[in-house]
Amino acid sequence: MASNPGGVDELNAAALVAGLRTYFRSGTTAELSWRRQQLRQLRRMLAENEPRFLQVLRQDLHKAPQEGFMTEVSALYGDIDHALKHLKKWARLRRASTPIVAQPAKSYVQPEPLGVVLIIGAWNYPLQLLLSPLVPAIAAGNCAVLKPSELAPATSALVAELLPRYLDRDAFTCVEGAVPETTALLEQRWDHILYTGGGRVGKIVMAAAARHLTPVTLELGGKSPCIVADDANMEIAARRIAWGKFTNAGQTCIAPDYLLCTERTAERLLPAIEQATREMFGDDPQRSADYGRIVNRAHAERLAGFLADGDVIFGGQVDVEERYVAPTLMRNVSVEAAVMQEEIFGPILPVVVLDDFSKVEEFVNGREKPLALYVFTEDDSTADRVLSRCSSGNACINDCMMFMTAHDLPFGGVGSSGMGAYHGEHGFRTFSHFKAVMKRRSILDLDLRYAPFNARKFKL
Ligand code: NAD
């Protein structure tokens, strides 16, 4: 299957899905040897073209090659290697007990692939967020269509070029495009849709899926709080927060969105964050080779608009032409202001100062459930209390974002930050159906359950 160089006019989405479904029904994709081979091919695609992938990530988002490698390419190697290592175990039959009324029999759970799945990616990690869900989709034995984000055009074009050269063309297709192409794809009946992006489009995806009773995984966003207690190690916290917030110029779905702390903490923490940021990107981050750019002009302008919502402590420079927004820390922001109402998704970190640390849970719980929650404290009971009282998709104690590195942790949102999860075996489960099977034999057929239910069988 080829992608659609001619755009939506050349995209016959119905024929595309029908072709993939026919191939799926041939049973080829169910073979573990085929799945392994496709995973190895995906790895080869990345390894043989690594410099090109790092180059398109720089083109789309000015990612430093080291950052592109760390957060996108090497994360994918990890996903693939983990899937190859555990595939046999994930795909095995799971024995279950059989009750006495059903004896003699064997009961087991048999994982089976769902069929033809759609994966819609976002632009901020345009490679990783597209291919990371593909790994479990392959491991579980599915055919898939990938729809990369049109806002990262260089990465989208490279995936569309290389995918058919490495993977089985009868099973995988990359469809490039924007709203018209995505709309055409969403009209089709899929066996699963995994969508990464904002909640507004998430609702469109879910409504389209509902027409066909298609299950969805929605990897959305939200305002992820970063809570710093008075007893935190301020130096370490500042470094990790600056890294979590300013990597990829803040365009990370799990970046800390805002800081929550007391005045006593703010006095020590904010200068330490400024210092940590200078150490990473120098006095003028615009000239740093390691600092990213905002994906497009419109988003740079949107971020510039937030700067009027409070006092800028450091940063605040914007160069829309260059899509540059400096790492910025803000104070005295009203909780009613846009910067505290909308997901920031950029390198601006507002600080909300509470008069008493005990109010953090109330503050967090007064808002939508976030995708991530961070709490910095040296006291386990403080961390336990915050985590047990506040719901979030994922959480990290004394760091930001690092849960992403653990293959055995499910990655997903809750409430308005999403539904369903993937990564490691959780991804395999997302793209599989776990079929309950009972295997009986034709011996010993007690007539107790068959009518007529006379007094000989039952006395109520
Ligand atoms: P988006 O919702 O604008 O776009 C995502 C995809 O949807 C794109 O492929 C796009 O072509 C398609 N799309 C856009 N408008 C559409 C429409 N009207 N109909 C059908 N399809 C349409 O999201 P975005 O701006 O790319 O990403 C930003 C958001 O994504 C943030 O909220 C962020 O937190 C979230 N995000 C979440 C994760 C996660 O893993 N949970 C990762 C990255 C980003």
User: What would CATH call the homologous superfamily of the largest domain?
Assistant: Aldehyde Dehydrogenase, Chain A, domain 1
Work out the strand percent: 15-25%
How many beta-strand elements? 18
Unreliable segments (pLDDT under 50, ≥5 consecutive)? Answer: none
CATH classification, class level of the largest domain: Alpha Beta
Can you give the helix content as a percent range? 25-40%
Structural class: alpha/beta
**How widely separated are the two ends?**
64 Å
Instruction: Write down the Rg.
Output: 25 Å
Number of domains: 2
The 3D shape can be described as: globular
Determine the CATH topology of the largest domain. Answer: Aldehyde Dehydrogenase, Chain A, domain 1
Biggest sheet overview: 7 strands, mixed
Strand order of the largest sheet: 10-13-14-9-8-15-16
Bound molecule types = nicotinamide-adenine-dinucleotide
pLDDT averaged over residues = 96
Helices, by number, come to 16
The CATH architecture designation of the largest domain is 3-Layer(aba) Sandwich
GO molecular function: aldehyde dehydrogenase (NAD+) activity
GO biological process, one term: aldehyde metabolic process
Active site: 219, 253
Domain Aldehyde dehydrogenase: 23-437
